[in-house]
Amino acid sequence: MLCVVKEFTFDAAHNLVQYHGKCEKLHGHTYKLQIIVCGEKDEEGMVIDFVELKEIVKKEVLNYLDHAYINEIIPQPSAENIAEWIWDRLEKHLTTERYKLTEVRLWETPTSWVVYRKE
């Protein structure tokens, strides 16, 4: 099995309304997102075309989250909840008989990130 990884960045603002600390105030991040799709190669020698993967992520995720106030989309936009929302948006588009969405990684800062795997 091979895994294809595509990385993206987007800028967005949020505040954690059910949190008691400085993150309950409005603030922003430059998020880094990795999408990991694993499976078998096709006749062209690819698991999934990077161009196709990029188009799906742009349409289903980045068009909504980039330069957005995430609270308008996800009520409590913790990194964990954002990663789960991203998975839910992508899973049906990145699951076939040959490959499947395996992991979503979302960095809120260069040293803090979450990994979402649906098992």
TrEMBL record:
Cofactor binding note: Binds 1 zinc ion per subunit.
GO process terms (BP): tRNA queuosine(34) biosynthetic process
Pathway(s) it belongs to: Purine metabolism; 7-cyano-7-deazaguanine biosynthesis
Molecular functions (GO terms): 6-carboxytetrahydropterin synthase activity; metal ion binding
Domain of life: Bacteria
E.C. designation(s): 4.-.-.-
Keywords recorded for this protein, A-Z: Lyase, Metal-binding, Queuosine biosynthesis, Zinc
Active-site residues per Swiss-Prot or TrEMBL entry: C23 (proton acceptor), H67 (charge relay system), E108 (charge relay system)
Binding site for Zn(2+): H14, H27, H29
Catalytic activity: 7,8-dihydroneopterin 3'-triphosphate + H2O = 6-carboxy-5,6,7,8-tetrahydropterin + triphosphate + acetaldehyde + 2 H(+)
InterPro entries listed in its UniProt record: 6-PTP_synth/QueD (IPR007115), 6-PTP_synth/QueD_sf (IPR038418)
Cofactors demanded by this protein: Zn(2+)
First-tier enzyme category under EC: lyase
Transmembrane segments: none
Family: Belongs to the PTPS family. QueD subfamily.
Protein's recorded name: 6-carboxy-5,6,7,8-tetrahydropterin synthase
Species, as recorded: Fervidobacterium islandicum
Gene this chain is encoded by: queD
